[in-house]
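Hey,
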Amino acid sequence: MKSNELNPTDERMMQTLHRQARGLKWLTGAAIAFWTLAVLGTVGVLVCYSIFYAPKEKQMFRDYNTYGHLTHYTNSTDPTAGSLPAGPATPEQALGVHFTMNYVATRAILVVAVSVIILSAGTLTTLLLVILNRRVTLKQINYSLAQISEQLRQLQARHPAG
C-alpha cells in the first residue's frame, strides 16, 4: 500500500477529524464573539454611567448640600450661561427626578446582568472549547501512533530479524 492511499478506516478517521476541527473553529468563533460582546457591554455600561448618570447624580448631591433640597433649573437665554437654578423644585419635580434616576439605574442593572450572562456564556464556551480541543488532539495522536505502529509492523514483516 502506498503512503498516500488510505484504507476505509483511515478515511473515516480523517473525515471525523476534519469535522471535529470544523466544529472547533465554530466554537472558537462563538467564544470570541461572546468575550467581545461582554467587553463591549462592560465598557458601554461604564461610559454611559459616566456620561449620563454620574453628572446628574453629582448635581443632585450638590443641590442637597447647598440648598437642602433639589433645585429646579431653567435654561437661560444666554447660551454661555447654561442652566441656572430657578429655586426649589416642587415635590412633583423632585419625585420625577427620583423616578428618572431610579429608571436609569434599573436599566443599568439589567444591562450589567446581560453582560454577566454573556460573560458566563463566553466562559462556558471557552471551557467547552478547551475540553473538545483536548479530545481532538488525543484522537489525532492516537491515529498517528496507530499509523506508525502499522508502518513498523510492515517494515518488520519485510525485513525479519535474523
